[in-house]
Amino acid sequence: VDVAKAWEAAFFATETPQTRQVALRSSFVVETEPGGPFDTFYSAAVLGFGGRMGTGQQWTSWVHEKDFARIVEFLIDHKELSGVVNVCAPNPISQAEFMATLRKKAGINYALPMPTVLVSLFTFFNRSDPEIPMKSRRVVPQRLLDAGYEFVHPHWASAAEDSIRTWTAKGYTRSWFANTLKLTGDVVSRWCGNTGGSSASRKCCAFR
């Protein structure tokens, strides 16, 4: 967060009278490609670790990949918008509900809860950050809503269903054994220096 705030401060410190400045404060993007947050959550569910993470009461904000792309286009077209814009779905939910909905849409009927210490251990070995599932974020994209943007997937249920359908159509669905092998490979790869894919939490853009 401190690094992102420093980026924003540097971005807005530069005066660009002829160029509009927009800083996107984005939640994690539900992208249907290997290595992203959806892959992590979906793979965890298949492996049986799709229960609540930590207390499960922490707020989860997210945005579907289709909405993220459409929001960028919306911001380019709406020249009256500048400054900081929250990019996320308008209906954040608890982490427990997030995982329960994902399991339901994926047809997964088994789940073990992951206490905080287990989440920290898993993310340590996977060389990832426990902040995505554990940090509570209840963010609303008020400026986008006020400007008239209409979300394709305002609710997690429809976003999860669409993402699972797309994930399956791309041939990315894996068995329990295949997910275990992938997880092992990811751990080895990341400890060898490959950080893997991720979604940036904040982006700064300049639009004319």
Provide the gyration radius in Å.
18 Å
Number of strands: 7
Shape: globular
> What is the end-to-end distance?
27 Å
Estimate the strand proportion: 5-15%
Quick synopsis:
With 208 residues, this protein is of the alpha/beta class. Helix content is 46%, strand content 13%. Strands 5-1-7 form a three-stranded mixed sheet, sandwiched between helices. Strands 2-4 form a two-stranded parallel ribbon.
Account of the 3D structure:
The protein is an alpha/beta fold and 208 residues long. It has nine helices and seven strands, in the order H-E-E-H-E-E-H-E-E-H-H-H-H-H-H-E. The strands form three sheets. It has a three-stranded mixed beta sheet with strand order 5-1-7, with helices on both faces. Strands 2-4 form a two-stranded parallel ribbon. The protein has a two-stranded antiparallel ribbon with strand order 3-6. Helix 2 (37-46) crosses helix 4 (95-106) and helix 4 packs across helix 8 (156-169). The longest helix has 16 residues, at 176-191.
Q: How is the secondary structure organized here?
A:
Layout: H1 2-13, E1 20-26, E2 28-30, H2 37-46, E3 59-60, E4 62-64, H3 65-77, E5 83-87, E6 93-94, H4 95-106, H5 116-125, H6 131-134, H7 142-146, H8 156-169, H9 176-191, E7 202-207
Parallel strand pairs: 1-5, 2-4
Antiparallel strand pairs: 1-7, 3-6
